[in-house]
């Protein structure tokens, strides 16, 4: 296993008119499981393919285990990649699929290769499939074989490109747990790409968020969740998504008075709070962000209570999502025993410590929730 350094890695296509990956720098620790997440087209696959040696960077460097491999051919990098479409050889048996890579990448004897394949197949619970061809297998079994084929090589670095996207929800959950178990047992260094923020948040020791080829933020899942550096990250991470309201800010004595253009929404930040953040609050237009789970149904007398109407009640079992008549879309996540109906009038409230303020122009988070001191790195 190995530490990986990605240094100002860049990939342009079509003579520079497409910048798929824009000067990305990352340090991945030995044994760390890093998830890379972002919308379709943000540069995830291109990044992985450069790490694997399948795509030549336009600029920048890649170091694996301290060795500069930027110009090293894919087959001479000790890297295994697992794809969404499994990429198994259709005419080879499971055993042959698993053994083939070992034959190519190691000088183990035939009996040593066989022992490794059998041992890995047992670990992956596919020992009874070794004589089968891929088209005899279910989707879940194929993905297990693809994982086994990667693991049997004991590479320095594992790369996963949306490996579970073709599986149904239940199988995806169990395969996620399985990959995490293997990761723990084997202590593998892994980069796992997904467009699914939930998968990225639950699997990663660290999460890296890309948009349009640009690194947005990296950090522990909880850090990124609690202190998104910009509006994109605030909205991308978390489900249901963070609520946003465009607000104008005016001083009101020692406080700050926030209002939306429709006059439906008003919120005062306290003098003490404003005092602590005086340096950051220079603009007059922001987007206020608050997460659905931080919004409560409150008494009319609560601080900053907002009177509104319930548009839709979306029951999801343990919780109800209340879609409210604030801004374009505004959701409160409440306990399922809160009995409310569409059309009901309610007052809602949220604490100022849960408020994010994003600069209206740059999207930068100037005032993030202040549960802890910010430790965000970008
Ligand atoms: P993701 O995996 O995050 O969906 P990709 O890394 O596949 O994104 O693509 C990033 C960007 O690079 C996209 O805009 C995509 O259209 C472009 N791109 C990827 N491969 C090529 C290619 N071979 N030629 C031209 N453009 C490409
Ligand atoms: Mg992709």
UniProtKB/TrEMBL annotation:
PROSITE patterns cross-referenced by the UniProt entry: ABC_TRANSPORTER_1, ABC_TRANSPORTER_2
Keywords annotated in UniProt: ATP-binding, Cell membrane, Membrane, Nucleotide-binding, Translocase, Transport
Record has Membrane as a keyword: yes
Reactions it catalyzes: L-arabinose(out) + ATP + H2O = L-arabinose(in) + ADP + phosphate + H(+); D-xylose(out) + ATP + H2O = D-xylose(in) + ADP + phosphate + H(+)
Compartments it resides in: Cell membrane
Ranges of residues in domain ABC transporter: 4-237
SMART domains documented for this protein: AAA (SM00382)
Any one Gene Ontology BP term: carbohydrate transport
UniProt KW Membrane keyword: yes
Membrane topology according to the record: Peripheral membrane protein
Any one GO molecular function term: ATP hydrolysis activity
EC number annotated for this UniProt entry: 7.5.2.13
Main location as per UniProt: membrane
Pfam families in the record: ABC_tran (PF00005), TOBE_2 (PF08402)
Family membership noted in the UniProt record: Belongs to the ABC transporter superfamily. Carbohydrate uptake transporter-1 (CUT1) (TC 3.A.1.1) family.
Subunit-level organization: The complex is composed of two ATP-binding proteins (XacJ and XacK), two transmembrane proteins (XacH and XacI) and a solute-binding protein (XacG).
This protein's name: ABC-type D-xylose/L-arabinose transporter
Organism field: Haloterrigena turkmenica (strain ATCC 51198 / DSM 5511 / JCM 9101 / NCIMB 13204 / VKM B-1734 / 4k) (Halococcus turkmenicus)
